[in-house]
């Protein structure tokens, strides 16, 4: 049986991150009792991330405050998650500290998950090149030469979880729950959310 | 053809509101160029609503700042929207200023929309009694004696739009878009979100 204790997730959020993808992921993981930390990256107003459609989300931490702890393995996450939203994804994928973090975490056997345009951070961190990936169609051209590009709604390959857009965010989040905690936990939290019969 | 200009929506948010239902609705409406104002109700920390799974959302306005303008019709919304999350829904549905606002707006032919536990605010405002409604199953017992309770994923009846939970929030938001702006607008914004084939 999967160990239900102490699973920890780090969700990165920047100005321009897609708020639905961000919030669906955080909420669904917390419904599964995963300990989620929302870290703000290079926010113009340090108090909140101004997301792609203007929703303002207060992060739990500033990434600059926790990056040293994370990189030095004092603070250990089971998964790092990157939402979409083109502007936010560009900020996240071009940050060298994050590139280093994603690469080292993946080398250590941790999961890396990205949805929509957030998937470009997987490429910029040089993770799982040649492996299977999906993304929002708008960034397909950035990925298909260096990955085995898939049109599936969610793809899991070598501890890299990728997905396509706001409409696949529930499936993305539930797949993360299943990978970390098993199918039973996924099923347990699905029912009260009144999901569609196919995601 | 529907008039695409100047549609205005007011989304009410309190501590304990369901963050997925709140954010999916705001985001999808803004994708349809609806002018959305997020108003915070009785927030413990006036800077943000602490939602049901800990996501902190900064409102655009405090409801107490705009309630006079809204009640005196200086500020006119085409729709008022109440998310779920039991604690948030209780705060919103027990607020007498909001009850007055919802009732007077509905009398004036405006839409009232609620999802999940947010639907109890429709009852507390005495709106469309005997009409068709749906909700999250947890509040079905509060509604079924005074409404024609439905198990549909979204219900539109006499300018009251109701829905069931986080998993029906995309359908809820798209139904609002269709009611305000027509099916063409709904279809236009649906495609980039990569929604499931049935919602
Ligand atoms: Cu709810």
Automatic annotation (TrEMBL), chains A, B:
It is found in: Cytoplasm. GO terms for cellular component: mitochondrion; nucleus. GO terms for molecular function: glyoxalase III activity. Its main location: cytoplasm. GO terms for biological process: glyoxal metabolic process; regulation of cell communication; regulation of signaling; response to oxidative stress. Gene3D superfamilies: 3.40.50.880. The keyword Cytoplasm applies. The keyword Cytoplasm applies. It comes from the Eukaryota. Keywords: Cytoplasm. Its EC number is 4.2.1.130. It catalyses: methylglyoxal + H2O = (R)-lactate + H(+). PANTHER family: PARKINSON DISEASE PROTEIN 7 HOMOLOG, PROTEIN/NUCLEIC ACID DEGLYCASE DJ-1-RELATED. NCBIfam families: not_thiJ. This is D-lactate dehydratase.
């Amino acid at each position: 049986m999967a160990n239900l204790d102490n699973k920890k997730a780090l969700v990165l959020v920047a100005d321009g991150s897609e708020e639905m993808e961000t919030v669906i992921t955080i909420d669904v993981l917390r419904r599964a009792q995963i300990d989620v930390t929302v870290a703000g990256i290079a926010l113009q107003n340090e108090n909140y991330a101004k997301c792609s459609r203007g929703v303002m989300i207060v992060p739990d931490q500033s990434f600059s405050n926790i990056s040293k702890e994370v990189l030095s393995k004092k603070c250990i996450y089971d998964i790092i998650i990157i939402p979409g939203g083109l502007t936010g994804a560009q900020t996240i994928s071009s940050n060298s500290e994050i590139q280093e973090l994603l690469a080292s975490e993946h080398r250590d056997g941790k999961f890396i998950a990205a949805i929509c345009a957030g998937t470009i951070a997987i490429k910029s961190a040089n993770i799982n090149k040649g492996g299977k990936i999906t993304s929002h169609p708008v960034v397909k051209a950035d990925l298909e030469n260096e990955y085995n590009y898939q049109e599936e709604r969610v793809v899991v390959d070598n501890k890299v979880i990728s997905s396509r857009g706001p409409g696949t965010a529930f499936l993305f989040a539930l797949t993360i729950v299943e990978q970390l905690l098993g199918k039973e936990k996924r099923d347990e939290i699905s029912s009260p959310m009144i999901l569609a019969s196919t995601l």
